[in-house]
Amino acid sequence: MTGVLVLRPNTRSLHTEQVHTMKLRIDIAGVGFFCTRPPEPKVDFETGAVRTDRESGDTLWRVQVAALDASGGEILVVTVPGEPDVTIGSPVQIKGLVAIPWSQGERSGVAYRAESLRSTGTPIAGVITPPAVAAAPGEASKPSGQAGSGTKAA
């Protein structure tokens, strides 16, 4: 267990509030992880600015993963510094996963943070098929996200 003391200004009053953030290391032995959504930058809800890691200055990224073990599965959103090179359906390795309980007014939950997250193989076959984009007359349809050559088929 790692405890971190964070001092933040209290925006509701003129004094500084003391917040104790507990980071709980998670034993992930025997757990398989798969990417279930593409990575997206973590954004500050109040300002809309992209969040960065306090230590490294790297952009923080959120990645949704499925965690599977012998008892079943759970969906987690894990925050990592630096853009992870993962695709939907790919098995991933997570290093240094911690759970951070939080409370804000009437709301509370658990945030997940990791030192790194990387792909360890090819995506599961048949899980993800890009949707086809309607083709112009005379062109073959293409998976979404692929640019055309600009020439028409003969």
Describe the structure.
This protein has one domain: OB fold (Dihydrolipoamide Acetyltransferase, E2P). It is 0% helix and 46% strand. It is built from no helices and 12 strands. Strands 1, 2, 3, 4, 5, 6, 7, 8, 9 and 10 form a 10-stranded mixed β-sheet that branches. A two-stranded antiparallel ribbon has the order 11-12. The chain is globular.
Condensed summary:
The protein is an all-beta fold.
List the helices and strands and how they pair.
Layout: E1 2-9, E2 16-25, E3 32-35, E4 40-41, E5 60-69, E6 72-81, E7 91-95, E8 98-104, E9 107-113, E10 116-119, E11 132-133, E12 142-143
Parallel strand pairs: 6-9
Antiparallel strand pairs: 1-2, 2-8, 3-5, 3-7, 4-5, 5-6, 7-10, 8-9, 11-12
- How would you describe the shape? globular
Can you tell me the CATH architecture?
Answer: Beta Barrel
Query: Would you tell me which CATH topology applies?
Result: OB fold (Dihydrolipoamide Acetyltransferase, E2P)
For the secondary structure, the number of strands is 12
What characterizes the major β-sheet?
A: 10 strands, mixed
Indicate the low-confidence ranges by residue numbers.
Answer: 1-16, 144-154
Domains, number: 1
Oligomer type: single chain
Beta-strand share of residues:
over 45%
Q: Topology as H/E string?
A: EEEEEEEEEEEE
Tell me the radius of gyration. 21 Å
Average residue-wise pLDDT: 80
CA(first)-CA(last) distance? 66 Å
* Class based on secondary structure composition and strand pairing: mainly beta
What percent of residues adopt helix (DSSP H or I)? under 10%
Q: What's the tally of helices?
A: 0
